[in-house]
Amino acid sequence: MSATGTFTPHPGAAPLPRMIRAQAALETRMLLRNGEQLLLTVIIPALLLVLFSAVDIVDTGSGKSVDFVAPGVLALAVMSTAFTGQAIATGFERRYGVLKRLGASPLPRWALMTAKTCSVLVTEVLQVVLVTVIAFALGWSPHGNPLAVLLLLVLGTAAFSGLGLLMAGTLKAEATLAAANLVFLLLLVGGGVIVPLEKFPGAARSVLELLPISALSDGLRDVLQHGAGMPWGDLGILAVWAVLGLGAAARWFRWE
């Protein structure tokens, strides 16, 4: 005969790492099933890479166009996922009360943000692989230190993620949708992604060079196209944006 309570369930939260993995997997599946997000994070970067590499729309200087365009598109892929996509998705989750309900679950709020960050990183890995494959097919010849590329991508992700969460946590969902897309378009044109910063007037260029997208695209281009060493200046700019963005998001993000 069984002892009393042998088959009594013991309810409780799952281990924290398991909860984070489950939430990160859910966030990733939701992103990959969203047609609008796929357009923003996958289709647009791939089309820009093919178009501007195959057709001499913008004078990128000496060498093959793809050698200039590919690093910029990698930077654009990071921005589209860590900033634009995350800002829009998180903003509407906040509006519909999803964040409020998740905040009341056993999953801590910091762990929820960790899961979202993991989802962003997984998506970026898929983007980098796709862009790299297409670029190689177009004749891309990258150079440089892989560690420098990794540091640029990680700091770029941190910078854009902080800015995206700050926007999603302070503005209304509709305002976030409009602002995130507007910023995406402005930085696509003026961030050195497709159009070299040298094409802009000196005063404007001095300001544009301080933007996170400019630091990321220029840093990746210096390493991958010119084989430069560690781009400390660009890494420093991204680090400052990451600290400011994440710090501001932690301070002013509203869950309701």
Features:
mainly alpha, 256 residues, globular, single chain
Could you characterize what this model shows?
- The chain is built from 10 helices and no strands.
- It is an all-alpha fold and 256 residues long.
- The chain has one domain.
- α2 (35-54) runs parallel beside α5 (109-137), α6 (146-170) runs antiparallel to α9 and α9 (212-224) runs antiparallel to α10 (232-252).
- The longest helix is centred in the N-terminal third of the chain and has 31 residues, at 65-95.
- The mean pLDDT is 88.
Secondary structure layout plus pairing:
Blueprint: H1 16-33, H2 35-54, H3 65-95, H4 98-103, H5 109-137, H6 146-170, H7 173-190, H8 202-208, H9 212-224, H10 232-252
Helix pairs in contact: 1-5, 2-3, 2-5, 3-5, 3-6, 3-7, 3-9, 6-9, 6-10, 9-10
List segments where confidence is low: pLDDT < 50 over at least 5 consecutive residues.
none
The helix count comes to 10
Question: Helix fraction?
Answer: over 70%
Q: Kindly, what is the distance between the CA atoms of the first and last residues, rounded to a whole number of angstroms?
A: 52 Å
Structural class: mainly alpha
